From TrEMBL:
Membership in a protein family: Belongs to the MCTP family.
Record PANTHER family: C2 DOMAIN-CONTAINING PROTEIN, DYSFERLIN-RELATED
The keyword Isomerase belongs to this UniProt entry's keyword annotation: no
Single Gene Ontology BP annotation: regulation of neurotransmitter secretion
GO cellular component, one term: synaptic vesicle membrane
Protein name: Multiple C2 domains, transmembrane 1a
Membrane topology: Multi-pass membrane protein
Length: 644
């Protein structure tokens, strides 16, 4: 084995890919708007054999589109001298047009025979590069766009915006049928480069059933923007029409850090005192966005899953809080790794969930998932070292292994309460949603449980009207009369307050019923046919529910559209009577009369059928499907009469 050290100083928005034996082993950073780029990057690569040449390809980066090929070349490693740095110039060519000169790429290459622990130190440094800390935060507020290019046949568009800065991405919501959309969305990117960076922005027209149309692009150069100041940017679109309006603010880095277990700020009495003072009640209105601080000690893991063919794994740990993401180093060939790292995050929302995920590092492909835990910040017991059982990606069931964590959360209660009333921060790195039969079944069962709860409450109230239990009905009737007669508006929040207090008392007495509402994952253990029948039942139920909701809305619309004139006249009479009654009679008396009628109806006529007059009226109004069917039947009948 040999190790190659090289530095690129070579010759749009170019970047370079390096491949050996068809596998991509390195990709350089992108140099924006430069035909003579200088990368000045250094990287160390492991080479199994010198017989395989190093294939170098240069591309022009186009955000949102396919990158343009700018040339390629081969570096034959067998021709290099060992232990000596050589300046190599590669002439870039296009294999399809070998006579065209596409420029050159300059490399400084050093070939060194592999030493014992080189592989481990190399991969360790690569992990630290991936786990680097950001030096600032770019806060972006997408305001609006003006005079966009019409893309649809109606002369309008359905625009949305894509943002990208390195690996960080964000997509706005779609504003339908407009050339002057207003988004009013806010999000943050992490700034890793002290010199700034570039934000690539593209605007697209949403098209259902086909590829979205490109509407234009623009770019923000952060290096020219001053920090700790909000900049309004009116950006003209390239390759399109119109202007995009943004507000961009560059701020200093939040309180994020990685340290060894021996370097712990909360163990230092002076540091801890300062942090407690920073988040004390006396400073509740100072820097409202800085809600608190969370410190995570990642101690070790035990009994992890073996991901490699050797029966071992190369585990590392990723700690995430909202859009903040840090990771440990990799412990190689170990199922019981010890990391002993301390992560410190700034808390912007006390309702955030701390996610700790363990992966197995693979040099030639993406990391393998080993397990995950999710811990709401409000559920954390400060200073408690605890073993958390690792779960699956969806957190629906356990996987192999446990991880030992010690977490401390310090926050300001007033700030946390105020931040609760503003929109939650949207994650800009998320997995694409996929269709899942199991998830569909699970969500249907959740909705059905909520509906069944409402139905059970309705049945209980109806049983009071039916006098199934005379004692319960008498108590309900007296309570109804008392509440309606003495009702005041302040009683609404008072009742909700009493409900919260009642449930709190039950929990304090050990009568906690919340665990009965947890969704189980028993469907995973069902057979294939049972799952198939369950999905079929879900589809039929959803189909019927959608039909009921659509029919109800269409019947209300058709009542006011005079689809059936008799029913529309009848509704006019009923609405006139209701208007006069509400105008001349206090609402309290009307509700009291309605309740007395409902409670005494069964006593006056034991054999009466319970009904709802409003629903009975709507059931006579045809839905749109019935209107079309009746019209079609009428046309058929007329056609037969004409033929006769």
């Amino acid at each position: 084995m040999y190790c190659i050290f090289f530095a690129c100083t070579g010759t749009s928005d170019p970047y370079v890919k390096f491949k050996i034996a068809g596998k991509e082993i390195f990709r350089s950073k992108t140099i924006h708007k430069n035909l003579n780029p200088v990368w000045d990057e250094k990287v160390s690569l492991l080479v199994e054999s010198l017989r395989e040449p190093l294939y170098v390809k240069v591309f022009d980066y186009d955000f949102g589109l396919q990158d343009d090929f700018m040339g390629s070349a081969y570096l034959h490693l067998e021709s290099l001298e060992h232990q000596r740095t050589l300046d190599v110039t590669l002439d870039l060519k296009d294999p399809h047009y070998p006579n065209h000169d596409l420029g050159s790429l300059e490399l400084a290459v050093t070939l060194i025979p592999k030493e014992g622990d080189f592989r481990e130190s190399l991969r360790l440094s690569d992990v630290h590069r991936k786990a680097q800390l950001w030096r600032g935060i770019v806060s972006i507020r997408l305001i609006e766009a003006r005079h966009l290019q019409p893309m649809d046949a109606n002369g309008l568009s359905d625009p949305y915006v894509k943002f990208r800065m390195g690996d960080q991405k964000y997509r706005s919501k779609t504003i339908p049928k407009t050339l002057n959309p207003q988004w009013r969305e806010q999000f943050d990117f992490h700034l890793y480069d002290e010199q700034g960076g570039f934000i690539d922005i593209t605007i697209w027209d949403k098209d259902v059933g086909k590829k979205d149309d490109f509407m234009g692009r623009c770019q923000v150069d952060l290096s020219v923007l001053s920090k700790e100041c909000t900049h309004r940017l009116d950006l003209p679109l390239e390759e399109g029409e119109g202007t995009l309006v943004l507000l961009v603010t560059l701020t200093a880095s939040a309180a994020v850090s990685i340290a060894d277990l021996s370097v712990n700020i909360l163990d230092d009495p002076h540091e801890r005192k300062e942090i407690l003072h920073r988040y004390s009640l006396l400073r509740s209105f100072h820097n409202i966005k800085d809600v608190g601080l969370v410190q995570v000690k990642v101690i070790r893991a035990e009994g992890l899953m073996a991901a490699d063919v050797t029966g071992k794994s190369d585990p590392f740990c990723v700690v995430e809080l909202s859009n903040d993401r840090l990771q440990t180093h990799t412990v190689y060939k170990n199922l019981n790794p010890e990391w002993n790292k301390v992560f410190t995050f700034n808390v912007k929302d006390i309702h955030s969930v701390l996610e700790v995920t363990v992966y197995d590092e693979d040099r030639d492909r993406s990391a393998d998932f080993l397990g995950k835990v999710a811990i709401p910040l409000l559920n954390i017991q400060n200073g408690e070292r605890k073993a958390y059982a690792l779960k699956s990606k969806e957190l629906t069931g356990p996987t192999k292994g446990v991880i030992f964590l010690e977490i401390d959360v310090i926050y300001n209660v007033v700030k946390a309460g105020m931040r609760t009333l503003i929109p939650i921060e949207q994650k800009y790195i998320e997995d694409e949603p996929r269709v899942s039969k199991q998830l569909l079944l699970q969500n249907f069962n959740r909705v059905r449980r909520c509906i069944m709860l409402l139905i059970n409450v309705g049945c209980y109230i109806n049983s009071c009207f039916e006098w199934e239990s005379p004692q319960r009905s008498i108590c309900a009737f007296l309570l109804f009369v008392l509440v309606v007669w003495n009702f005041e508006l302040y009683m609404v929040p008072l009742v909700l307050l009493m409900l919260l207090a009642w449930n709190y008392i039950l929990i304090a007495l050990g009568k906690d019923t919340r665990h009965g509402d947890v969704v189980s994952s028993d469907s995973e253990r069902k057979g294939f046919m049972n799952k198939l029948y369950a999905i079929q039942d879900v589809c039929i139920s959803v189909q019927n529910a959608l039909d009921e909701v659509a029919s109800c809305g269409e019947r209300i619309k058709n009542t006011f559209n005079w689809t059936v004139p008799f029913l529309s006249w009848l509704s006019i009479v009923a609405l006139c009577a209701a208007t006069l009654a509400v105008y001349f009679i206090p609402l309290r008396y009307i509700v009291l009369a309605w309740g007395v009628n409902k409670f005494t109806k069964k006593l006056r006529d034991p054999y009466s059928i319970d009904n709802n007059e409003l629903l009975d009226f709507l059931s006579r109004v045809p839905s749109d499907v019935q209107v079309v069917g009746n019209t079609y039947a009428l046309l058929i009948k007329s056609f037969h009469l004409i033929n006769c």
